[in-house]
Amino acid sequence: MDRLTRFDPFGDLDEMFRGLMLRPVRVDTPTHHIRVDVSERDNAYTVQAELPGVKKGDIHVDVDGNLVSISAQTRHQKEEKENGRVIRCERSSGSMSRTFTLPHEVDQAGAKAHYSDGVLELILPKKAQSRPSSVAIQ
């Protein structure tokens, strides 16, 4: 009882699958993940989202209060011809999305978006905070 060991529930997966002559498969799809950088200034947020290979018309941005959602459809088609005959034709499609919350609400009327070279840039102005005011008693 003088030795403690850390329990790793996934540590023995290789051993479990060794008897079946299989190895566990981990699927990682980095192409379906939107990487986002958010910076804050005094009056606005700047969001830069990487969307390589996506057409401008396939991007959709929603802003609701301080919740920002970015979604995109991806479509790829590759066709190989040899002597005018199609030898191979591959198609793939998918979607990706990212939703995050900002610390302050966004003024939706002043929001701007620009897409160039696979990078979507959003300028999201902060909504003016209501300041406490005195009410005169009559």
Structure description:
This protein is mainly β and 138 residues long. The chain has one domain: Immunoglobulin-like (Sandwich). The chain is 4% helix and 46% strand. It contains one helix and seven strands, in the order H-E-E-E-E-E-E-E. The strands form two sheets. A four-stranded antiparallel β-sheet has the order 1-2-7-6, with no helix packed on it. The chain has a three-stranded antiparallel β-sheet with strand order 3-4-5, with no helix packed on it. The longest helix is centred in the first third of the chain and has 6 residues. The protein is flat, with a radius of gyration of 25 Å. It starts with 12 loop residues before the first helix and ends in a 13-residue tail after the last strand. About 4% of the residues have low confidence.
Question: Secondary structure elements and their pairing?
Answer:
Layout: H1 13-18, E1 35-40, E2 44-50, E3 59-64, E4 67-82, E5 85-101, E6 112-116, E7 119-125
Antiparallel strand pairs: 1-2, 2-7, 3-4, 4-5, 6-7
Structural Rg: 25 Å
Domain count: the total is 1
Estimate percent helicity.
Answer: under 10%
Q: What is the general shape?
A: flat
Mean pLDDT across residues: 81
Number of separate helices: 1
Q: What's the architecture, going by CATH?
A: Sandwich
Structural class estimated from helices and strands: mainly beta
